[in-house]
Amino acid sequence: MQDYKKLKVWEKSHSFTLEIYRVTKLFPKDETFGLTSQLKRAASSIPANIAEGCGKYSSKELAHFLNIALGSSNESEYFLI
Q1: Phi, then psi, of 33 in degrees rounded to 5
Q2: Residue 60 belongs to a domain
Q3: Pick from 47, 57, 59: which is nearest to 20 by CA?
Q4: What is the pLDDT tens value at each position of the chain, 81 positions in all?
Q5: H-type helices in 1-81, by residue range?
Q6: How many CB atoms lie within 10 A of CB 20?
Q7: Is 2 helix (H, G, I), strand (E, B) or coil?
Q8: Residue 21 forms part of a structural domain
Q9: pTM
Q10: How many domains would you assign to the chain?
Q11: 24 assigned to some structural domain
């Protein structure tokens, strides 16, 4: 186990999530249940999975959650494109 709050990748992904929440307030209202919702979920999944993986006891489990975080990062990137 390790303290996820000490990881730069977690700090950056947390900041990214906060920025997504700020920016999506500017999105059109008709996107509230579409793009806005999906982007928020994908972005918040990144630091959440890093944190969850850091709470596991094996490197294999940590790698699994980091892989999920990477997938969420790619998903967020696509929504922003």
Answers
A1: -100, 5
A2: yes
A3: 47
A4: 899 999 999 999 999 999 999 999 999 999 888 999 999 999 999 999 999 999 999 999 999 999 999 999 999 999 999
A5: 8-24, 35-54, 59-80
A6: 20
A7: coil
A8: no
A9: 0.94
A10: 1
A11: no
